[in-house]
């Protein structure tokens, strides 16, 4: 869209049914798009071939429609754009910014120190960074499973020293300094697909001309990395808003993995979309 109107997106991963936390994020995106005179897209982040089930995608769309949320067509499904992610990945490889990593999880655990990335995962010790390119090529010719990792030091050198973005909320906008180095040599392409969440999301936000990214606070630290990838790939940086996560009565954040009640469960017990909207602070 080139009209200059704001474009937002709600981007669920179809690895479980939507819960109230998703409903909050989806409603907030729709509400902000409305207030700003823009639109909100739906993006299905189904890069994980094991966990993304077609039936779940249908269920997500149905749950959103039940809440009263519909989205402009076409809805982007990331699984249909692997070629584009491969091109982006290969561009980083060709520029010496990414290297293949043949380490198993156990090897990484054994080699890692105590420092962790913002998700609490031990920083990659760099084992494969200095691998002789001929040896790496041999491993690859033998089809050894490998991820591709960003060479963080090289990436920071190429991207230049300062990184930041503009965060916005109801009170206004403010600059935020980003510290991508804390992610270390992060995986930019998994073993099974030519991308990771990080690479696909920055690619798609640009491709879909997203101007405002509104998502949970659990992804706030990842924005530091996203800003760096945008710099490296020559992509624009949207504005960001990271909202608080909904918690259950025990103070734990809602999560599919913890069995939080899904919207479908709530619907079954007779809860209406209007009640959900009211409960989440939307009229
Ligand atoms: N697909 C991600 C999730 O479901 C959200 C990604 C994003 O909003 O950037 O947690």
Main attributes of the structure:
Glutamyl-tRNA Synthetase, domain 3; 283 residues; Rossmann fold; 2 domains; alpha/beta; three-stranded antiparallel β-sheet; binds glutamic acid; 10 strands; three-stranded parallel β-sheet; globular
Q: Approximately what portion of the residues adopt beta-strand conformation? A: 15-25%
CATH topology of the largest domain: Glutamyl-tRNA Synthetase, domain 3
Task: Name the average pLDDT.
Answer: 95
Q: What is the string of SSEs from the N terminus onward?
A: EHEHEHEHHEHEEEHEHEHH
Number of helices: 10
Number of domains: 2
Q: Write down the Rg.
A: 20 Å
The CATH architecture term of the largest domain is: Alpha-Beta Complex
CATH homologous superfamily title of the largest domain = Glutamyl-tRNA Synthetase, Domain 3
**Number of DSSP strand runs:** 10
The dominant shape is globular
The secondary structure category is alpha/beta
Largest sheet, in brief, is: 3 strands, parallel
* Strand numbers in spatial order across the main sheet: 1-2-3
Please give a quick description of this structure.
This protein is of the alpha/beta class. 37% of the residues lie in helices and 16% in strands. The strands form 4 sheets. A 3-stranded parallel sheet has the order 1-2-3.
Question: What does this molecule look like?
Answer:
The chain has 283 residues and is α/β, with parallel strands linked by helices. The protein folds into 2 domains: 1-74 and 247-283, 3-Layer(aba) Sandwich (Rossmann fold), CATH 3.40.50; 82-207, Glutamyl-tRNA Synthetase, Domain 3 (Glutamyl-tRNA Synthetase, domain 3, Alpha-Beta Complex), CATH 3.90.800.10. The protein has 10 helices and 10 strands. It has helices at 20-35, 54-66, 82-94, 105-111, 133-141, 152-159, 197-207, 220-233, 263-268, 273-279, and strands spanning 7-10, 39-44, 76-77, 98-101, 147-150, 164-169, 172-177, 187-189, 212-216, 239-243. The strands form 4 sheets. A 3-stranded parallel sheet has the order 1-2-3. Strands 4-5-8 form a 3-stranded antiparallel sheet. Helix 7 (197-207) packs across helix 8. The longest helix has 16 residues, at 20-35. The structure holds glutamic acid (GLU).
